[in-house]
């Protein structure tokens, strides 16, 4: 059995090489493990020390272990970002939804059909209807109105959550959170895929990205990048360091960054390699939403890309 001193040495090498890339996260309790593999043990402890929650720490530790087996050696750098080590689907994916553009541009998340039409006519390339109601008839009306609102514009319309109504109304796509995805029965997922709708999935860390990959979505949303008051988040803001690592791993998908992103942060967010930025308050709370949309799209078209600090 490998001495614990060797595990400790590996742990210190990982921390020394990667602590700068993931600043500001308090250490988490190390998940219990009975694995005798020293690479897994060291990586698990290192990820916990770097602030990754238990199921993400385990996910990265397994990937570190898989890479060491694949290459025949332990390497403290680079941070694991090879899809095969996370057991992601190889290309071409066996399970996959219809594709969407890799660069979705400015992605406006909007509360009702009137806002959808307003932003589509302002030239926003991707819009999402996030309409909250327990009234099925009201949901159906709003989804239908949103589909009608983008007609005559090039905007791509995604419907948050209400996938059955999205199919019926003829929307471009649907966006689901992790809870929504888990609630789907296999027959539901098959019906959604057979409809031809594009599928976007929210993720908040490594384990959720692996879960999303299993259904082959059209795009993957990564967040929340910064603090947001829009909704209560189960995970802490991820920051650009983690976002850059996520983008390297999930680079086979169109990627959308979301969560508290303002105009001044567009450069550093785009520098991580994502192809789209989703905004909510930057538009719906703006004094002049159309002018705000134009300004944000200009930043996306010619941003000053700031590369996030990454591990050597």
TrEMBL record:
<comment type="pathway">
    <text>Cofactor biosynthesis; thiamine diphosphate biosynthesis.</text>
</comment>
<dbReference type="GO" id="GO:0005737">
    <property type="term" value="C:cytoplasm"/>
</dbReference>
<keyword id="KW-0479">Metal-binding</keyword>
<feature type="domain" description="Thiamine phosphate synthase/TenI">
    <location>
        <begin position="113"/>
        <end position="283"/>
    </location>
</feature>
<keyword id="KW-0784">Thiamine biosynthesis</keyword>
<dbReference type="GO" id="GO:0004789">
    <property type="term" value="F:thiamine-phosphate diphosphorylase activity"/>
</dbReference>
<dbReference type="GO" id="GO:0009228">
    <property type="term" value="P:thiamine biosynthetic process"/>
</dbReference>
<dbReference type="InterPro" id="IPR013785">
    <property type="entry name" value="Aldolase_TIM"/>
</dbReference>
<dbReference type="GO" id="GO:0046872">
    <property type="term" value="F:metal ion binding"/>
</dbReference>
<dbReference type="Pfam" id="PF02581">
    <property type="entry name" value="TMP-TENI"/>
</dbReference>
<keyword id="KW-0808">Transferase</keyword>
<dbReference type="InterPro" id="IPR022998">
    <property type="entry name" value="ThiamineP_synth_TenI"/>
</dbReference>
<dbReference type="InterPro" id="IPR036206">
    <property type="entry name" value="ThiamineP_synth_sf"/>
</dbReference>
<keyword id="KW-0460">Magnesium</keyword>
<protein>
    <submittedName>
        <fullName>Thiamine phosphate synthase</fullName>
    </submittedName>
</protein>
């Amino acid at each position: 059995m490998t001495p614990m001193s060797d595990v400790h040495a590996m742990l210190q090498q990982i921390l020394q090489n990667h602590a700068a890339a993931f600043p500001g996260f308090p250490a988490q309790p190390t998940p219990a493990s009975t694995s005798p593999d020293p690479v897994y043990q060291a990586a698990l402890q290192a990820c916990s020390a770097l602030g990754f929650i238990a199921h993400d720490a385990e996910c990265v530790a397994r990937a570190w272990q898989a890479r060491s087996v694949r290459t025949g050696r332990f390497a403290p750098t680079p941070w694991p970002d090879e899809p095969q080590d996370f057991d992601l689907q190889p290309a071409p994916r066996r399970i996959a939804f219809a594709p969407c553009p890799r660069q979705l541009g400015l992605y406006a998340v909007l509360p009702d059909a009137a806002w959808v039409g307003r932003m589509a006519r302002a030239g926003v390339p991707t819009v999402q209807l996030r309409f909250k109601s327990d009234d099925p008839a009201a949901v159906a009306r709003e989804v239908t109105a949103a589909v009608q609102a983008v007609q005559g514009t090039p905007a791509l319309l995604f419907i948050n959550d209400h996938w059955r109504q999205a199919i019926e109304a003829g929307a471009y796509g649907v966006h689901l959170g992790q809870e929504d995805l888990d609630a789907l029965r296999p027959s539901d997922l098959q019906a959604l895929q057979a409809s031809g709708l594009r599928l976007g999935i929210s993720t908040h860390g490594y384990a959720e990205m692996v879960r999303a990959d299993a259904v082959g979505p059209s795009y993957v949303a990564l967040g929340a990048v910064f603090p947001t008051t829009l909704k209560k988040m189960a995970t802490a803001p991820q920051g650009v360091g983690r976002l850059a690592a996520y983008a390297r791993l999930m680079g086979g998908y169109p990627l959308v960054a979301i969560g508290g992103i303002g105009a001044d942060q567009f450069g550093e967010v785009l520098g991580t390699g994502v192809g789209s930025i989703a905004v909510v308050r930057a538009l719906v709370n703006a004094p002049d939403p159309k002018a705000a949309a134009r300004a944000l799209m200009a930043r996306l078209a010619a941003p000053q890309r700031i590369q996030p600090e990454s591990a050597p």
